[in-house]
Amino acid sequence: MASVGHVQPQRLHFEAPLALRSGASLRDYTLMVETYGTLNADKSNAVLVCHALNASHHVAGTYEGQDKSEGWWDNLVGPGKPLDTDKFFVIGVNNLGSCFGSTGPMHINPDTGRVYGADFPVVTVHDWVDAQALVLERLGIRQLAAVLGGSLGGMQALDWALRYPERLRHCIAIATAPSLSAQNIAFNEVARRAIITDPDFHDGHFYAHGVVPKRGLRVARMIGHITYLSDDVMEQKFGRQMRAAELGYSTQDIEFQIESYLRYQGDKFSEYFDANTYLLITRALDYFDPAREHGGDLSRTFAAARCKFLVASFTTDWRFSPARSREIVKALLDNKLDVSYAEIDAPHGHDAFLLDDPRYHGVLGAYFNRIAGELA
């Protein structure tokens, strides 16, 4: 299957203030956008892809002159792939608060002339969806064929179905949940504290000091990475393999291969990700809870939805377990909505939604073929 090839991001600027759920607002902000495929004459074949924590607008394709620049969902999006760009016009938007080009903590606050840093306002899933809706207006797209997302991206897809019910025909929510469990919030808090207590954090204004809280970012990534993998995959990849033939009897040196792997992931992450962005996005995860406005009743919450749904989960995903997806499915069925559900027996844990499992891709491919058939 072919790639979409070299791609070029677009930078969309919005002057009008965007009112945020927190009561704050953002003005003169920029959103980074990439598109793949061709928008048909009646603009009915557009699919919005929502990204998760450390991803971006760069969903598919490559950047000319850059090695290893494949989009984060390049295995899924492209000609002949499950989300076929010969049939669909695919849109990726980098969320506000990110560190990949859209306005975020690393940018200049137009009200002060200084870098936002920790003064960047708290953003929520609702705010991201509102900003994505403005992108669609700029592109002249009144209704989406589908909104697709995994993990935090799946939360955005659900929010689209609840808050803009007439503007999408299908919602595809993968490896996600209607809200975070207490355990998930706890993991996020430990990761945030690792960053906040790094001496180089400087209350979020580390840019002015010319430093980066890399130690905190490393630990945050290590914590997160453990939760993305299943126990079986970690055992299969690393087990109790040692780095050396003999025990070193050290409490500080790397002894096991799994330790080496986690430190590598942490080091890599600390080189490209922004600490304030990490705090913002994990808090957005914590806050997502659409049922809160309906007394915790998820069935009442989904009464607002009008589109068709595909919900998919993975058996070994313990961070966003199949039980959480089944909560969504039950709420949809309670409202007599059209819903397909796939619970895929994959060994990879939460990261499975990013990988090449043929059953998973088969489910998505069949569903998008169904949507394509509706366009004919």
TrEMBL record:
Keyword Flavoprotein: no
Binding-site residues, substrate: 221, 351
EC identifiers of the protein: 2.3.1.46
Location(s), subcellular: Cytoplasm
Catalysed reaction, written as an equation: L-homoserine + succinyl-CoA = O-succinyl-L-homoserine + CoA
Organism superkingdom: Bacteria
Domain AB hydrolase-1: 45-355
Residues flagged as site, Important for acyl-CoA specificity: 319
Key words, A-Z: Acyltransferase, Amino-acid biosynthesis, Cytoplasm, Methionine biosynthesis, Transferase
Subcellular location, principal: cytoplasm
Catalytic residues in the record: 151, 317, 350
Enzyme class: transferase
HAMAP family: MetX_acyltransf (MF_00296)
Entry similarity comment: Belongs to the AB hydrolase superfamily. MetX family.
Protein function: Transfers a succinyl group from succinyl-CoA to L-homoserine, forming succinyl-L-homoserine.
Subunit structure and binding partners: Homodimer.
Protein name (database record): Homoserine O-succinyltransferase
Gene: metXS
